Amino acid sequence: MTTTTPETAVPRENTTTPLRLRVARLSILVSLVVLGIKYAAWAVSGSGALLSDAIETILNVLASVGTLWAVAFAARPADDNHPYGHGKAEYVWAVIEGVLVVLTALVILAIAGHDALHIQAPEAPLPGALLNASAGVINLIWALILRRMGRTHHSQALSSAGDHVLSDVWASLALLVGVCLIPLLHWLWLDPLLSALVALNVLWTGFGMMRHSMTGLLDEAPPPELVHEVGQTITQAGQGALEAHDLRMRRVGSLYFVEFHLIVPDEMRITDAHDICDRIENAIRAVLGRSSIHIHVEPEDLAKRHKPGASGVLVM
């Protein structure tokens, strides 16, 4: 016998979705403002390094639009074609954004190579650097907000967007220091070198985003500590059952999927077994929050606790 309650058969809509959508929309506005400031910084200074930073910010605008799409699509309720919901859309977009970041890094590297072969002194490095620094401050504040929202509401799209913007902050800081040093040290080669360093930073960020997002697409298990806590919860709430085994868990966005087998006495009535399952499900939700729980009820002769080498067995 397999038991799920109606509310877990089709996961309930995440009540934080409207807030996540507002943050994603605001992210587009912030990225456009930052792009305008960085374009002005390049126009004032003529610095190839600042141009590279502005080009990377164009990607931020496109990424913000993609993040809004991913958050909105992931919020759709389960349907006949997607009975487990649309939560993985955020992971898919995070991988796509990582690819775009890598491609942008390659473009910036090409610009840096061209500038290295045609070195020119920036026209007004200090005003341009100051404008770029102001954009960096805006990005720093917004990156911290995005990362916090992503962690709090389990949004891979917002977390990846925050990581992306934060990488832009470190690049802006390096550019501020470097571009200000050019008129003091007269090292004209420093401008294309900074462009190359920005590109390498962007490249590293892009690969990191793809690697982290792939764990969600491949249904990587939650941390062992959390799995152990859920196992302990099943043991405590499953009084009346004999054993639980083969516990498996995964997370898609803010929704956890939990499944395991529950051994009950042969003489137990179906209604009693169902009551135990309800009690276990409520206890698991108290730990995990929004969850889809699948419990397969089995008779005594399928218990594993007396079988040699059996693992993953929780004795009630």
UniProtKB/TrEMBL annotation:
Q: Which ranges carry the Cation efflux protein transmembrane domain?
A: 26-218
Classify the protein's membrane topology as the record does: Multi-pass membrane protein
Family annotation (Gene3D superfamilies): Cation efflux protein transmembrane domain, Cation efflux protein, cytoplasmic domain
Record domain Cation efflux protein cytoplasmic: where: 222-300
One matching Pfam family is ZT_dimer
Q: Where in the cell is it found?
A: Membrane
Record flagged with keyword Membrane: yes
Source domain of life:
Bacteria
**Protein known as:** Cation transporter
Q: What is the lineage of its organism?
A: Bacteria, Pseudomonadati, Pseudomonadota, Alphaproteobacteria, Acetobacterales
